[in-house]
Each structure stands twice: as C-alpha cells, then as structure tokens.
Amino acid sequence: MTNPASEIRVESDDIITTITIDRDHKRNSLTADVCRDIADAIEEAEKSQERRVVLLRGEGRAFCAGADLGGQHHEGSFHEQLRRMLRTIESSRLIVIADIQGPAVGAGMQLAMAADLRIVGERAWFMIPPVKLGIAVDAWTVRRVRVLVGGARARTILLAAERMDQDEAVRCGFASYLGGSDKADEVAQRIATYAPLSLAYHKAVLNDDETHSPLGAEQQALYDQVWASEDAAEAAAARAEKREPRFHGK
C-alpha cells in the first residue's frame, strides 16, 4: 500500500508493479524522498515470488524533469538516495520498464537509463545538462550514456547539452519501443510471461559492463574540482536569480 504522504503511486497485481511519480505540479522532478520511495517500492516488489516486472511512469506532462533541489546541487541526501534508486533498479532481479511519455531531463534521463527497456512516446525528449549548470554527473552516468546511445551521440548530449528527441532515440537504439502507455502495458504483460530466472540472468550479464569501473585519479580530481568550483556556485545563484550564469573556469 502506498504511503499517503508519498509522492509516488504504487499499484501491483500478481506479476507487475507499476510505480508512478505523482508530482505533475513539479513536472515529476525528483527529491531525496521520491528517490527513496521508488527504491523502497522496487525492493518491496522483489519480495513477491510472482512479481516479474516493474513499470515506471510519470504523471501528466513529463516523465521526470530532473532534480528538484531549488538550485542547491550540493544536497548530500539527494545524491545518496539518487544513487541508491539507480542501483536498486539496475541490480533488481525484476525487469524494469520506463514508460516515457514526456521529457526526461538530467536525473530523469538517469532514471530512464537505469531501466532495462524504454517505451518512448511522441512527446518524449532527453537531455543531461551539467555543463550548463557548472556541475558534474558521476562516471556511471557518463558511461551509461555511451553504452546506450553510442560514443558520438554521447558527446553531443554531455558536451553540447543537446536534446535527443524521439526520432534520434530510435536511430541510436535508446528507445526500445515507440508508443504510448498502452504499448508499455503490452510489453510489460508479455515479458512477465517469460522465464524469471532467464530474465534475471540475462539482465545481470547485460549490466556487467564498464559503467561501474572506478574513476582514475585525474578524473576523480576533476570531478571533485567541478563540485567545489565557483562556477557551480555561480550557476546555482543564477538559477535562483533567473538569469544566465557567467562561468570563469574556477
């Protein structure tokens, strides 16, 4: 049963758990609590031997518009819970399907990437804009983009902060299927009939890739420098003041 105070809805039948981010007033942006609740719901679903699939959705206009941090990107509990949510999705024995019927930006694209399959609707588009915010995403995110969309497209997403629309998602293979939520329901129901041990094995091997390799010393130093930079603070101030940031590389 869903916690009345939670901003997600959880509905389960014998084989499928559907998790809906219910924050349309915030375009389904993520807080630490929402990330925690999604991870908890997936762990709860795993307790059922009959459960096979988790379906992730966003209510209303967006799939997930990113992090709801009020411009404060140093909120430690958010990053902790975001990492836990992504890792829970990736390591779950259940097949996690993202039903993406609107924008998936920043942490929203991370959520889409953690899923095993993505159903992409005509209103969907994707972006990861850390270079516009003076911050850095973790190595898992950089590498997962490269694994899922290819190296050349990953560079336009991460270095040029370009949007990837539905057509581009299809061309690079990021979109598993095109269609609306009815298509997501159909795929979930079909996969839920497959052999659960076989699904879990193939998912585990597919996720045994470069994405969890540790950063090298130089890469880690650059990552730490980005988060401690004046540019990161400037971007947060500019967002609060509703103006463009002025970056100086320090």
Automatic annotation (TrEMBL):
Superkingdom of source: Bacteria
PROSITE patterns: ENOYL_COA_HYDRATASE (PS00166)
Matching SUPFAM superfamilies: ClpP/crotonase (SSF52096)
Alphabetical list of CDD domains matching this protein: crotonase-like
Keyword Ligase (UniProt): no
Keywords carried by this UniProt record: Fatty acid metabolism, Lipid metabolism, Lyase
InterPro entries: ClpP/crotonase-like_dom_sf, Enoyl-CoA_hyd/isom_CS, Enoyl-CoA_hydra/iso
Any GO BP annotation: fatty acid beta-oxidation
Single Gene Ontology MF annotation: enoyl-CoA hydratase activity
Stored Pfam families: ECH_1
Reaction(s) catalysed (UniProt annotation): a 4-saturated-(3S)-3-hydroxyacyl-CoA = a (3E)-enoyl-CoA + H2O; a (3S)-3-hydroxyacyl-CoA = a (2E)-enoyl-CoA + H2O
Primary role: Could possibly oxidize fatty acids using specific components.
Matches recorded under PANTHER family: (7AS)-7A-METHYL-1,5-DIOXO-2,3,5,6,7,7A-HEXAHYDRO-1H-INDENE-CARBOXYL-COA HYDROLASE, ENOYL-COA HYDRATASE-RELATED
The family this protein is said to belong to: Belongs to the enoyl-CoA hydratase/isomerase family.
Record-given protein name: Enoyl-CoA hydratase
Native source species: Corynebacterium lactis RW2-5
